[in-house]
Amino acid sequence: MPVFDFHTHTSISDGHASPLDMARRCQQNGYAAYVCSDHVDESSVEARVPEIVAACARVGAELGLDAIPAVEVTRVAPERVARVAARARSLGARLVVVHGETLGDFPQPGLNLAATACPDVDILAHPGLLTAREAEQARERGIHLEISAAGLHGLTNGHVAKVALELGAPLVLDSDAHRPESLLSAERAAQLLAGSGLAQELVERVSGRAPWVILARRGIELSSLRAPAEG
Ligand SMILES: [Zn+2]
Ligand SMILES: [Zn+2]
Predict the structure, then answer these.
(1) CA of 124, nearest ligand number
(2) 228: in domain
């Protein structure tokens, strides 16, 4: 099964490798596409999104791997998340991830609710102590809730999976890699989802179906792969 991962960082923000080096490792690990989702906030969005777009074009040209420009809206006050997300999209980000209320970071109350209310958002990353109301809002908007492969952000994976499943909100697994060694493999992805308490059929749905729903929602097609048939 191809690997999907909508949340990775590069030296454009606080990652430790260039987009090309990250994408090369993605290719080796069997990724379906490379998604570059560096951090942006109100002051960095204008400069960074064009950099991300250019880096993805270069990855596509040099490696022949589909490369999707994205952002992770990070450290933006809840009431301003929608504005930064919309700006990132208008500058060329095709997917928008929002840095959620992880236990691995300083608290930003209200952020999960603001992000799951925003039509420009695709994924709420590491949502920490996700509430039923947030999960319900994510389901209504079609926003995917993230199971995180990254250190402290993953502390609440079991909780996020449980609440999302109870409320019928969609889940996705991401690496949040800041270096090539932290990117996913198919085997690692399956282990992390099983470790979050998901039964085998749900592991397959989250790694095999959810990524195609995320892409289709924004009209993104891959050059060499197509969504598996329903059923
Ligand atoms: Zn984050
Ligand atoms: Zn991140």
Answers:
(1) 1
(2) no
